[in-house]
Amino acid sequence: MRNAICWDKNCETDGFQVPIQKQSKPSDGATPVRKRLSAQARRAEIVQAAIELFSETGFDGSTRDVARRAGITQPLLYRYFPNKENLIEAVYSRVFLETWDMQWDGMLLDRTQSVRDRFQRFYEAYTETVFQPVWLRLWYFALLRDANVHAWYREVVQEQILKPLVRERRVELGRSEVFAVTAEELDATWLLHGGLLNYGLRQQAAGQLDQTNRPRVIAEALDMYMLYSAARMPPQIN
Amino acid sequence: MRNAICWDKNCETDGFQVPIQKQSKPSDGATPVRKRLSAQARRAEIVQAAIELFSETGFDGSTRDVARRAGITQPLLYRYFPNKENLIEAVYSRVFLETWDMQWDGMLLDRTQSVRDRFQRFYEAYTETVFQPVWLRLWYFALLRDANVHAWYREVVQEQILKPLVRERRVELGRSEVFAVTAEELDATWLLHGGLLNYGLRQQAAGQLDQTNRPRVIAEALDMYMLYSAARMPPQIN
DNA sequence: CCATCAACTTATCGTATGATAATTTATTCA
DNA sequence: TGAATAAATTATCATACGATAAGTTGATGG
Fold this sequence. Notes:
By secondary structure, chain A is mostly helical.
C-alpha cells in the first residue's frame, strides 16, 4: 500500500497534494532534498515553526499547521513533544528565556556615561529584540493564557532593568543607592517601560515597524524619568 | 421521544445531566423557572455570556460554552447570530463602543480646575471602567485578532483624551492651543496612557485589583507629563 | 378555544483537532 | 553487506467544533 490514494472518508491528507518531492532548503544540490534530520535539529525546526504559527494565530494554532510549516507530518511532532502543552512550553523558553543579552548588564552599569545615555543605548538594543512582531505577539498571547509567565517576566524586568535604573539615577543625583527601591520609584519606571511596550504593540498592530522615530520615543520616555526623578530626589539630601 | 436518554454515539448532550429544571434567575418565585424570553432579552443574555467566556478563553471559546453559560442550547444561538463571527462583533460593540461616558468630555475641558486635577479625576473614572478584567482581556484579545479594532481605538483615545490633554496643558502654560498637536506631543501622552494600560494589565495578570494605590500611579503619570510639558513648552513663548 | 407564530430543543452533518499504534524507510556500524 | 536502530509516514480514533434541518412547546390574539 505504498503511495496509496486516499480511499477512506477519514483519510487525513490535510490538503496535501500527491506527495511531490518537496525540499525544505535548497542549500545543497547533492543532498536528497529533505528528510532524516538529527533529533536535535528536527526538534529545533518544529519549535521554530511553532513560534511562527503561534505568533500569528495564538496558541490555539493546530499541531497540523505546525507540522505543515516544519515540512513534516503531524504525528512526528509527538516523537519530540509528549503533548501540545509541552511544545508550547518549549516555545516559551526558546523565545522568552533566551531574550536577555548578557552584555546589557554591563551597559547599564557603565558609569563613564550618563544614566540617560546608557539607558538610551540599552532601550534601543532591547526594543530591537522585543519589538519583533513574533516576540510581542507571543508575549501578549502568553500573558493572556497563564499568569505564571507574567510573574516571571515581572521579576526579570524589575531586577535587570528597572531597579538598576533607579539605583544608577540615585547615584547620579548624589543619593545613596543602598536603600531599598521604593514602590513609588518602581511604579514610575514601570509606567515608562510599560508605555514603551505599549508603543511597540501599537506599532505592530498598525502594521508599521517605524524604525525611524523609535529612538525619539525612547528619549522622550527617559526625559520624563530624568525630570521626574530629579524633582522627587533633590541631590542635597543625604 | 421526550426526555429521551442519549442512545446515539453522536448524541450531543455535552455533559448535561438529566434535564433537571434549571432556573436562570431566582428573582421571582411565580415565574415558570425559565424559558421564553423576548428576542431582545435573549440576545442580550447570549452576548453577556459570550463576553464572560471570551474574556476568559479568548475568542476561540466555543459556541457550546457560550450557550451553556446563557442557559440555552447551542443551536438557539444561531437564531440570533448568523455565525460566530457575528457574535464576536456583537461583543465588540457591546464592550468597546459603549465604554465612553459623555460626562467625561466636559470633565476634561472644565477650566475652573487645573489640568492635573481634571485628568486625575478623569483617569480615576476611566480606569474604573477600563481596568475591569473583562474589558482589559477582551481588549488585548481583540487587538491580537484583528488590527481594525485597534485603529478605531487609537483614534478614540487620541481625539477624546490625548489631544485635549495637550491642548489644555498648552493653555495652562500660556501658549496657543490652535496649532496642530505635534507627533512629539502625542507620543509623550501616549507613553503615559499606554503605561497606565500596561499597569492595568499587569495588575489583572497578577490577580490583584489593587484599588488602593491606583490613584497614586495615575498621579505619578500626570506628574511626569506636567514636568515634561513645562520643560518643553516654556510659558513665555507666544 | 384554537390557530398562528415565534421561541426553543433534538438530532445530525461535515470537518478539524489532539493523540496513538502500526508500519516503512533511511542511516550507522559491526 | 546486512542486521539494528532511529527517523518518518500512514492509518486511525475519540472528541470537539461550527452550523443546519426538522420537530416541539408555549404564548397571543381573534
